[in-house]
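Continuing from the previous page of notes. For each protein in this section, the sequence appears first, followed by its structure tokens. Read the first protein now.
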Amino acid sequence: MDFTRLTSLLRHLVDEVRIPSVCMQVYRDGEQIYSYAYGSPEGMTVTPNTTYNLYSVSKLITCTAALQLLEQGKYLLTDPLYDYFPQFREMYVRCGKGDDLGNRIAQGERILYEDGKTEVVRATRPILIRDLFNMSAGFSYNYNAPAFKRILAETGGKFPTLRLADALAAEPLEYEPGTRWGYSLGHDMIGALIERLSSMPFGEYLQKNIFDPLDMKSFTFHRDEAVYETMAPQYLYNYETKRPELITKENPMLIGEGFESGGAGLIGSVADYAKFANAMCLGGTSPQGARILSPATINLMRQNFLPAGAEVDFNWPQLQGYGYGLGVRTHICPAKSGGLSPVGEFGWGGAAGSYVMIDQENRLAAFYGQHMRNNLEPYVHPRLRNTIYGCL
């Protein structure tokens, strides 16, 4: 194996594409075969132990944790969500727009309109647990909706993870459950489900069942100055100047104090996330013998769960040739992706550019750390994938 070309690509991303810093680790057969970190002068010196806001690569860890509970018989993917959160028993679907619609529903009203015009209609089937995983529940990513603001006002800015159920249930759905793919707060709702089923705070569950067994010491939801000291500077890419601009290290996707966001809230390092990816590519068990999932569950996770016809929604340019499984992209057609990875390779990306790739067939795992929102994913991620395979 010769990773010269991968190193050249990573340097190109910093020197010419202007990403301030990059870091990557690759594992095969349980052994680390590549590690590289590189930053521009304005970035900082990064190492594999530098931490990042991981944003949506948090989702893969959240879904893994929830699938542990599936293995324990705590729920079935086909169960209605209302079996565990009764507030979802009666849901409505948005089919029109009214200026006060969201606010009135958030205050508890169930609204049907006169003159033959219905701005919300009753959903014809319940949200299933499966719909949370595969982003087909009908939720949105609008955490500024009236129900969210009402809870924050009630709690003085706090947002306990379980209160997400109250907020989401009070808002109309964007579409009929199970009919479309829509990127949303569904995986954050899975965090609330884990909290309810395990009878422990979501972050505590992750610590006990994933972070401690895999020795992922940097991983946390907690934020303070000491945490920020070890974090890479965060940037926002300016498409007009084609340059990154320094911003704060805060995560703008956290709803309120105390909210442990399973969809976008974790902080962690490349070195530690790579340990998780390595265990997943080995069938759910680390080289040290810590088992987090069974091979059968990982195989289920990487099946294509997109609802029929939802390919038109799942249309991000870097996801051509991929389907969507239980919280992960999953490679289904190399002819469409132009990708060198095998069918069944899976993973996801994050808002600041982080990227995880897991390949059980080749017992291969890779994790890439980046800390620049407006992240150039369509350019970066497919190139990383193909270059890794070209180096093997």
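Done with the first. The second protein uses the same format. Note its length before scrolling.
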Amino acid sequence: MSDDREYQKFLEQCQREWEARCSRCGACCGVVEGDPCEHLRRFKKGGYYCSIYTERFGLHKTVGGRPFRCVPIRDILHKSWPGDQDCAYKKDLSK
């Protein structure tokens, strides 16, 4: 197997591991604030998911119509937002 292919497989594994850290709390999507992203959906057994996940980045609206820009979580990990104490990514970084 070529080095490029091995590296691509490594990057894909890193991406899967990063995504798996999310606890689906919905805090970064506005659940705690009470006006979440219009694309946020609740699982029947609890937790949240994005209905447009692969196209989520960019300008969107909240359920109440407020515009906001969805960004990668890595871009806001250094910031605070309502409910961020429940964010699994932030918990992992604080270890």
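What the second structure shows: Residues 3-93 form one domain. DSSP finds two helices and four strands in the chain. We return to this in next week's lecture.
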